[in-house]
Write a structure and sequence with these properties.
Elements lengths: L6 E4 L2 E4 L39 E3 L12 E12 L9 E18 L2 E15 L4 E12 L4 E14 L12 E14 L4 E10 L21 E10 L2
Antiparallel strand pairs: 1-2, 2-3, 4-5, 4-11, 5-6, 6-7, 7-8, 8-9, 9-10, 10-11
């Protein structure tokens, strides 16, 4: 028998090549034979098609523990932030929404692909004052380690005293920050979990943002908190 799409067994787990599914190999079963009648399992157990490539599935058709999923993710962002513009740096609660796309990269780590974040955004408001903020989210998901690598908040701007206009310009007084972003990945729910963020307004002599975890700059201007995001079809 010849199959139109590459596949490989890893113990009791089947790995389809990116862009492939069992639908591309209509005769494949989890037994030793296929549609040519050679020694297949008693019920055939034809594996169901996958909605996208690069997923691992067990011989019973369930999602493998090692799977990561490309696509659209949404979630929540929360914490506290101290600004040089507000109440002498008193921490203020912030909330927001996370929106990002996870794209499968060409590079693999062993049998697991890497994924990069594209179009990552977080935006929200500060509690008790007229203020909005928005950031870019960057990073790479190491699917083998189930960790976000080199994650970060970049190009963060907050606007105090007014909101952003439709073009994204602050109509009040603006401040800026950046910092690291961490998270684990739960392949059973296709979600980023245990996420943390840290932002600083501190600048180096060259003007680059300081992104050391836990460092909030002079006067503790900056913030920290948690975040999460789950696959959203």
């Amino acid at each position: 028998m010849s199959w139109r799409c590459p596949l490989k067994w890893l113990g009791t787990v089947l790995l389809f090549a990116p862009g492939c599914s069992s639908a591309d190999n209509p005769g494949f079963t989890d037994g030793e034979g296929g549609d040519d009648g050679g020694g297949g399992s008693e019920a055939g157990n034809l594996l169901p098609p996958l909605s996208d490539g690069g997923l691992l599935i067990h011989s019973d058709g369930s999602g493998a523990a090692g799977a990561c999923k490309a696509g659209h993710y949404t979630g929540m962002f929360a914490g506290t932030y101290s600004s040089f513009l507000t109440f002498v740096g008193v921490p203020i609660p912030v909330v927001g929404n996370v929106d990002l796309t996870l794209q499968q990269a060409v590079t693999n780590v062993g049998e697991f692909p890497m994924y990069t974040i594209s179009n990552g955004k977080v935006s929200g408001t500060a509690d008790g004052i007229v203020a909005q903020y928005q950031c870019d989210i960057v990073g790479t998901l190491d699917c083998a380690a189930k960790k976000l690598v080199n994650g970060g908040l970049r190009n963060c701007v907050y606007c105090v005293g007014a909101f952003f206009d439709d073009a994204g310009s602050c109509l009040g007084v603006a401040g800026m920050f950046e910092g690291p972003l961490t998270a684990d990945y739960d392949s059973s729910t296709f979600s980023f979990v245990n996420g943390t963020w840290n932002g600083s307004e501190q600048l180096t002599d060259s003007g680059a943002m300081v992104s050391d975890s836990g460092y909030l700059g002079p006067g503790n201007y900056g913030g920290s908190g948690t975040w999460s995001a789950q696959y959203t079809p």
